[in-house]
Write a structure and sequence with these properties.
The protein contains four helices and eight strands. The protein is of the alpha+beta class.
Length: 187
């Protein structure tokens, strides 16, 4: 009799340990702050280089033209185009700072736009018990990706505004999808 109780306790302890290990891989908290900081540093570097070019070319007149067979106007147009590309690409791709957590009783997604002027800070907090699923959308050959979360209410299903996940790495997107799929109702 004592042996069977010990066996049952060991079996339950083993199951509990497996659940803890499983939860360790399922519960996650992360943000893409490194990506956003890198983006801001590139923007700052491009601005400094562009301003240095303007000062050296038009104020100090230290660069002699034609340079490589092109006039100062041609070089300026090329550099303005490159600068505008660097500045406006994140805005076009809807890059957002994203903080995701499924630790605790709620799924928490905080986000804001990261263009030249930071956007309004938003937060979606959904109790795991009423989480009704999610859907993804892509545009422009997968360059712009978004995720929309759903919550079960008494009146029906509530749909949150899309959160653009283009700035997340492929691995971070996989983690978010894996977590949201785990908490989605299985039909």
């Amino acid at each position: 009799m004592q042996e069977s109780v010990d066996e049952i306790l060991q079996e339950q302890a083993g199951l509990f340990k497996k659940r803890l290990i499983l939860n360790k891989f399922l519960i996650m908290t992360f943000d893409n702050s490194k990506t956003i900081i890198s983006l801001r540093l590139k923007f700052l570097g491009a601005t400094i280089l562009f301003l240095a070019y303007i000062v050296l070319t038009y104020v100090a007149k230290m660069i002699k033209y034609p340079l490589l067979g092109m006039s100062d106007t041609a070089w300026t147009l090329i550099l303005v185009t490159i600068y505008l590309f660097i500045v406006f690409l994140p805005m076009f791709l809807n890059y957002q700072f994203i903080s995701y957590s499924d630790d605790g009783e709620k799924i928490v997604l905080r986000y804001f736009s990261t263009g030249m002027v930071g956007g309004k800070k938003n937060s979606v907090e959904i109790d795991k018990k009423v989480f009704a699923g999610y859907e993804t959308a892509t545009r422009y050959f997968g360059l712009i990706q978004s995720i929309t979360l759903f919550q079960q209410l008494k009146e029906g299903i509530a749909k949150y505004p899309p959160v653009y996940i283009s700035a997340l790495s492929r691995e971070e997107r996989k983690k978010v999808f894996r977590s949201l799929t785990y908490y989605s109702p299985h039909k």
